[in-house]
Amino acid sequence: MSQMAVNEAKKVLRRELKKRIAAMTDEAKLTESTSIVNKLLRMEEYKSSKRISVYLSMSSEVQTEGILKELFQAKKECFIPRYIGLNMDMVKLHSMEDMMSLPVTSWNIQQPAEDDEREEAISSGGLDLIVVPGLGFTKNGLRLGRGKGYYDSYIMKCIQTCKKKPLLIGLAFSSQICDDLPVTERDMPLDHVITSEPD
């Protein structure tokens, strides 16, 4: 499959997946999110991780607030994405209160302001685990993002700079699971994809 064909296939799939997620009720999203988050928190790999990156969820994504609360209770170090132009970094979040006070971007997601000096994960020792958002996933770890490549680039930078690959975990509503996904070698496969379905 040529790069152009892959990009076209991804575009079609993104539209389809957005429709599928939009058809879910808020109640279904909440029920599935709770079950998915509980599974993550029970994982040995999660328990042994100290430095964790978590996305702040939009309404169309598995809700991550429960992960944040547990992270702070367990005194783990929490990092969240900050998008500036074509670049994304992962900056330190200190508490739930800190999260509540973050400004909202034009994409309607909360993130620290550009001039807000915060510890950046790569420059202070890397990450043990990254919770990776996406539009579509396969059960064996393929992921379809929103098309900007932020996470793939950041993960590559983590590996090159810190000389170790963080554990990559995707959280997926059942409507986001696909049998297969068009990917290129730039697309980083995930180590685990957690769904609300019984294992």
Automatic annotation (TrEMBL):
Cofactors: Mg(2+)
Any single GO BP term: tetrahydrofolate interconversion
Assigned protein family: Belongs to the 5-formyltetrahydrofolate cyclo-ligase family.
Gene Ontology molecular functions: 5-formyltetrahydrofolate cyclo-ligase activity; ATP binding; metal ion binding
Residues where ATP binds: K10, K11, V12, L13, R14, R143, L144, G145, R146, G147, K148, G149, Y150, Y151
Name of the molecule in the record: 5-formyltetrahydrofolate cyclo-ligase
Coiled-coil regions listed in the entry: 7-34
EC number: 6.3.3.2
Catalytic activity, reaction form: (6S)-5-formyl-5,6,7,8-tetrahydrofolate + ATP = (6R)-5,10-methenyltetrahydrofolate + ADP + phosphate
Keyword Nucleotide-binding among UniProt keywords: yes
Binding site for substrate: L56, E61
Pfam families linked: 5-FTHF_cyc-lig
Keyword annotations from UniProtKB, A to Z: ATP-binding, Coiled coil, Magnesium, Metal-binding, Nucleotide-binding
Cellular component GO terms held in the UniProt record: mitochondrion
